[in-house]
Specification:
With 56 residues, the chain is mostly helical. The chain contains three helices and no strands. The longest helix is centred in the middle third of the chain and has 14 residues. This is Ferredoxin.
Length: 56
């Protein structure tokens, strides 16, 4: 299973999520490690609109 792509190699079906990631971190800033930020209390609207997912 592949989950990480170079920016230019993101499949078209996932491009919306690439944009959401960019916009999310534009607001949040670069975390420099998620542990430094702690829990983040919001999601990008594209992610928030997804149905609940079962753990994989």
């Amino acid at each position: 299973m592949e989950a990480i792509y170079y920016e230019d190699d993101v499949p078209a079906q996932w491009s919306e999520y690439y944009k959401a990631n960019v916009e999310f971190f534009d607001v949040l800033g670069s975390p420099g490690g998620a542990a430094k930020l702690g829990e983040i209390d919001h999601d990008h609207p594209i992610v928030a609109a997804l149905p609940p997912q079962n753990g994989a």
